[in-house]
Write a structure and sequence with these properties.
Helix 7 packs across helix 12 and helix 10 (280-287) packs across helix 13. The chain is globular. The strands form 3 sheets. It has an 8-stranded mixed sheet with strand order 3-4-2-1-7-8-9-10, with helices on both faces. 43% of the residues lie in helices and 20% in strands. The protein has 370 residues and is α/β, with parallel strands linked by helices. It has helices spanning 17-31, 74-84, 96-105, 123-139, 148-153, 181-191, 208-214, 231-241, 254-263, 280-287, 301-304, 319-331, 333-350, 353-369; strands at 2-6, 35-42, 49-52, 55-61, 64-66, 69-71, 88-93, 111-115, 142-145, 164-166, 196-199, 222-225, 246-250, 266-269, 292-295, 311-314. The protein folds into 2 domains: 2-172 and 352-369, Rossmann fold, CATH 3.40.50.2000; 173-350, Rossmann fold.
Length: 370
């Protein structure tokens, strides 16, 4: 069997949540002797094809970027060439350019879409895109939602329930490096043995300004790992509030990130908008057995984090509620430890890469058998 994934970005160029999902599926399929190609766009002058974790990543040149949507003239031909040799085309939504390529190439192959998120921010452009979006989703053979929570709250998915199934995102812990004693010692010296941790790309919907506001009148160390478009805004907010216990570290390598995940007291994940459809870095916290704090936004974050069981779920955009949740965990370490244990147990029950990949392979086979 041969699968073609199509999305605007991919490993190793970018390291976001969707790229992580594609990487997990593709590397897992490789272990099952399923050949996988990934086609994405790149602004760099780089090789047209490289090998990553046993699968092939093909690049088409990014020619234009508008409203977070990449366009590429060469992608039409590149997609057509790769799709002819594929058994199943696996799209990752949303990306309006992908819809255009799907119809322009006119290939008749089994198709599946992983529906990662509604379009939340671009409300005016969504009105223009809506006819194409609904035509595309109606045309594909199957749609996958990443959590039952998102399926039940998405007005778009509601219209296609007859061909939607749920496959939760999964992670393979074996793909994460073992933290070295040197790394653990280094970060422990900097932050001690009790601190809250956020990991992720610094984007508008992550709610980090709310977290920084919540950090006022507390002295809990809060470590923020990641880079992104709102980095300077967050630095300015931290400086303005004179918060000496909030540490904005920027991008770190995986071995540093794993060391911090191992050492931290708990995960704080304040995303406050539906653009945060799942929360892969929140799931990493569960995988490392940490209690979690997240916001109720009707998405997969509340499928990962069960209030009162694996952590605490608070109203979105509420610094006071976020502060009180941190205070509760901080002052109840035994309860926090038990929540972390249950979080890890839930990871092994629902969110391993093996479970996700097996579900997708079953789906690919059903589509082929049709």
């Amino acid at each position: 069997m041969k699968i073609l994934h199509f999305y605007k970005t991919s490993f190793p160029d970018t390291m976001g949540g969707v790229e992580q999902v594609i990487n997990q599926i593709a590397s897992g399929c490789n272990q099952r002797d399923i050949i996988t190609d990934v086609l994405s766009l790149t602004p760099r002058r780089s090789p047209r094809m490289i090998s990553v974790n046993g699968y092939s990543v093909h690049r088409a040149r990014l020619d234009l970027q508008f409203a977070s949507t990449g366009f590429s003239f060469s992608a039409f031909l590149r997609f057509s060439q790769l799709a002819k040799n594929a058994d199943v085309i696996h799209y990752h939504f949303p990306w309006p350019f992908m819809d255009l390529v799907h119809f322009a190439t006119g290939l008749k192959k089994p198709t599946v879409v992983t529906y990662h998120s509604d379009i939340v921010r671009q409300k005016f452009l969504l009105k223009l895109y809506r006819p194409l979006m609904f035509t595309f989703l109606d045309d594909v053979d199957h749609i996958v939602a990443t959590s039952p929570n998102y399926l039940s709250t998405s007005g778009v998915l509601e219209k296609f329930q007859n061909k939607v199934s749920v496959i939760p995102i999964g992670l393979n812990k074996m793909m994460y490096p073992e933290p070295t004693h040197k790394k653990l010692s280094y970060w422990s010296t900097k932050f001690g043995s009790k601190f809250f941790l956020f990991v992720g790309v610094l984007r508008y919907y992550k709610g980090l300004s709310i977290l920084i506001e919540a950090a006022q009148t507390t002295d809990y160390p809060i470590v923020i790992v990641g880079a992104g478009p709102i980095m300077d805004e967050l630095k300015a907010q931290i400086a303005k509030l004179r918060l000496k216990h909030v540490f904005l570290l920027g991008y770190l390598q995986d071995d540093d990130k794993v060391a911090l995940l191992t050492l931290c007291f708990g995960i704080v994940f304040p995303s406050h908008l539906r653009s945060e459809a799942f929360g892969v870095s929140l799931l990493e916290g569960a995988m490392f057995g940490k209690p979690m704090i997240s916001s109720e936004i009707g998405t997969g974050t509340s499928f990962i984090n069960i209030h009162g069981e694996t952590g605490l779920v608070v109203p979105p955009s509420n610094p006071f509620a976020l502060r009180e949740a941190m205070k509760y965990l901080w002052e109840n370490p035994e309860k926090a430890h038990e929540m972390g244990r249950l979080a890890e147990s839930r990871y092994w029950q629902y969110f391993t890469s093996d479970k996700m990949v097996n579900s997708y392979v079953d789906l690919y086979e059903r589509l082929l058998n049709k």
